[in-house]
Amino acid sequence: MTEILTAPLAAFVDALPVPRRLIADEHDGRLTVRMRAATHRFHRDLPESRVWGYDGTVPGPTIEAERGRPVTVEWRNELDASLPIIDTVAPAAVGADGVPVQCLPGLSGGAPNEEAGALAGYTVVHLHGGLTPASYDGWAENLFAPGQRAVFHYPMDQRAALLWYHDHAMGVTKFDVYAGLAGLWIIRDERERELELPEGPPFELPLLIQDRNFDLDEQGRLTGRLVHKTDPEVMEAFAPFTAVNGKVWPVLDVLPATYRFRLLNGSNARTYRLVLLGDGKSALHRISQIGTDHGLLRSAACVPSGGLVLASAERADVLVDFSELGRGSELTLLNTAAAPFDGSAFPAADAADAADLDGLLPYPQVMRFRVLDGAVTRRTTPRELATDYQPAPAELAGAPRRAIALVERELEVGPNVLTMRELEIAAEDHQGPLLTVTDEGQTTRYRVVASHFEDSTTFFPMLGEYEVWQLINLTEDTHPIHLHLDPFQILSRRAIRHEVPEDGVEDFEITASVTLGRGPDDELDHAIDDNERGLKDTIRVNPNEIVEIAVRFTTYAGRYMYHCHILEHEDRDMMRPFVTMPAELMAFMS
Length: 590
Ligand SMILES: [Cu+2]
Prior knowledge:
The termini are far apart. By secondary structure, the protein is mainly beta. A hairpin with a 2-residue loop joins β28 (435-439) and β29. It contains five helices and 37 strands. The strands form seven sheets. Strands 26-27-29-28-33-32-35-30 form an eight-stranded mixed beta barrel. It has a seven-stranded mixed sheet with strand order 15-14-11-17-23-20-21, with no helix packed on it. Strands 16, 18, 19, 22, 24 and 25 form a six-stranded mixed sheet that branches. The structure holds copper (II) ion. The site of copper (II) ion has 6 residues, from loops.
């Protein structure tokens, strides 16, 4: 479909907001953050929206901490109003005008979900990327209700990185985060200071990217009321408007200098592939990526030629050079990723024409940079960045291996559900459905041992020991898989073909055969990008692909979670527990 929608809001008219900084050292490491119902204006021409925010703001304050200096946060749930968003399922995926309903504001004929509208604010805070003891990690079921509070201790014994805190309530994370419960958390350390990286405004700025949608009144005008809309064919909400730090399509005036941007995709489901465009040409060469989810890379990476891909919860630390640009020059940040994202390519130079209604991408714009007059200051990117880790050994012979299949199950009523199936090698005499993986003629036979969040725990990693986790994607979309606690490194990303017989995906069992090697219709390159070769906590697993990661859990024993970070998936069972154990206790586990 080539039809273009006219945007009902003007782009690049609001200045990029910078969230309030909450520097832990200025409060002796003891902070109080209140979750409050509030109002927020997402755009100059929109009425105020009702939101839930940390300290009543969207995004919440950016908490800044020093490595090695613990931070205690008293999270106070003072939410005194019901869920401020309308959740709805439109009756059809495409309206009478042929436009997919998720590209449009309003309810598109959907009835408001009354159960969602009546939700009181049950919350639990998770610090994403934090090396946090299990009791403070924000287990999804350990909710605190309005009027209750939780005091969480964060050791901050970890390298500098951009983390984020957000709600993680069981089954309703998608609503709570969409309502505004998310904020950034920066850890700083000496290595970054040795490298003289910009710290704080104006030359270091966070960019928290989230898609949002709004309701319409009877005259068809935008009301500002937040709408979480899905349709019978797409169970994720892909909203048409992109907010950065809480403003739709903002603009930032920059000096002719090098800026450091800390990017996070905090959307429920949308993957962004970010392209910087100036005078109709890709300006991606101006960007050099120095860090990823868990901090600095070993050396700076160029952004892939198609753009910087960030799925939900992925972060990038980038230096952008505006120094040679004359006064009044403009660079526009655009998104070329269709939704749901499946890894398909799009040429960066065509980013201005990336609008794709069938791909649920009505407006590719994200934000704009406008160069002001000023003294030219350029910063050269240091050649060597992180010195504190080596690439994980590709061969981890003898390391425990775990296999997880990502599968989609059709239901007779309601949209499909996405689940993760934990696999174990089946005994020779095993009777029943099997998933087989054939690699260079060698076939491994697996049976499912867990399928739902509440099934028995089967993963008990030993502290201090490397493990290899194999993520096998049998679905048609990319899933960003997130592990709580320690970071990991990607070992491989390999093409597969798979066959799943009709009714092969049951409630618990699956029958499938997977063969390593590219299928005839598979156009993805299945490459590991340079900017993925760092310490990650969220990794994209594309369709027709097995991703292997090496993870070593350290320091904290306890019950944690891993899950898809598409919030609509994690809320509907694409989440599982694991329990980290000290080695000497393993002998006593029956
Ligand atoms: Cu998913």
